Amino acid sequence: MAFIDLARKRYSVRDYKDMPVEKEKILQVLEAGRIAPSAVNYQPWHFIVITDEEIKSKVAESYSRDWIKKAPVIIAVCGDHSKSWKRKDGKDHCDIDIAIAVDHMTLAAA
């Protein structure tokens, strides 16, 4: 598939089937995030795969949309500002690096 077709195919899912996601697919999405570029290749991220219903419920409490409660898997992407690259003027690239990794992951999921 051409990249432009993949970019057009990607959308934000708000409705989920009541079935587990295959481990291979989760690993593919994680790998897409892992290989994403980051400033100075510091990779200031942690990916946390959440499938446990109790933990998913606790995560859902932090987000005011009901659809998250039905997601079979939640991948929490956490940026570590203590490990991210900072420019001489103090600009922290952590959020930029995380955004790029998440974009790679959403495209892989598509």
Keywords:
4 helices; alpha+beta; 110 residues; two-stranded antiparallel ribbon; globular
Structural commentary:
With about 110 residues, this protein is of the alpha+beta class. The protein has helices at about 5-10, 25-35, 55-60, 95-110; strands at about 45-50, 75-80. The longest helix has 16 residues, at about 95-110. It starts with a helix and ends with a helix.
Could you give a quick summary of the protein structure above?
This protein is an alpha+beta fold. It has four helices and two strands.
List unreliable stretches of 5+ residues. Answer: none
**Rg estimate, integer Å:** 15 Å
Please give the number of β-strands: 2
Strand order of the largest sheet: 1-2
Q: In whole angstroms, how far apart are the ends? A: 11 Å
One letter per element, helices H and strands E, the order comes to HHEHEH
Q: What is the makeup of the main sheet?
A: 2 strands, antiparallel
Helix count from the secondary structure assignment: 4
Helical percentage: 25-40%
